[in-house]
Amino acid sequence: MANAATPVRYLHNTSNGMEALLRTIRFAEGTWRGGTEAGYQVIYGGRLISEVIPGSDPFSKHPQFVVVKQNALNSEAAGAYQFMGATWNRVANWLGITDFSPLRQDQVALWLILNRLSDAEEANINRGILTREALHQLAPEWASLPTYSGDSYYGYGQSVKSWSELKAFYNQQLELLRIQTEA
Q1: pLDDT single digits (tens) 110-125
Q2: Domain boundary assignment for the chain
Q3: Cα–Cα distance list, 11 to 23, 30, 72 (Å)
Q4: 165 an active-site residue?
Q5: What fold, for 7-182?
Q6: CB 29 within 8 A of CB 82
Q7: Residue pLDDT, tens place only, 36-55
Q8: Distance between CA 141 and CA 136 in Å, rounded?
Q9: pTM score, two decimals?
């Protein structure tokens, strides 16, 4: 398990492998949107914060807006990583984060990742290796990531991307990052 002794660890640049994982989680959560900034203001159900709360700055704070869907779950998940309000508040407060900007969302997601992954899986990710074990370890944080069984950790009919689909996306992003790094 990652050492959570200091927030500074979560504010530095990440490896290509970790960046590819961040992108893969956004893809799994349905907020990838081609990697654009719009994905950082998606709320549960796919709408944008700016559509639901017109005139607001979508990056000023977590909206704490509960989406009620008929015959479905209600949720206040928001942002690129679909943070629940309580999760966002807890981690952002610990890290000293005061806004909901894309950079800050990435930093909170990284904190959650590093506090879920074993040291061995963190090392794998940093080497550009995504394993089923890593996804299984992250599944309690992100319901769209599969457990070993291929289902959501929460088991309530949550849409889950398959291991093969996530692995393919991760590898594609890793290659794009490698090309960008070499350019």
Answers
A1: 999 999 999 999 999 9
A2: 7-182
A3: 17, 25, 36
A4: no
A5: Lysozyme (1.10.530)
A6: yes
A7: 999 999 999 889 998 988 88
A8: 10
A9: 0.90
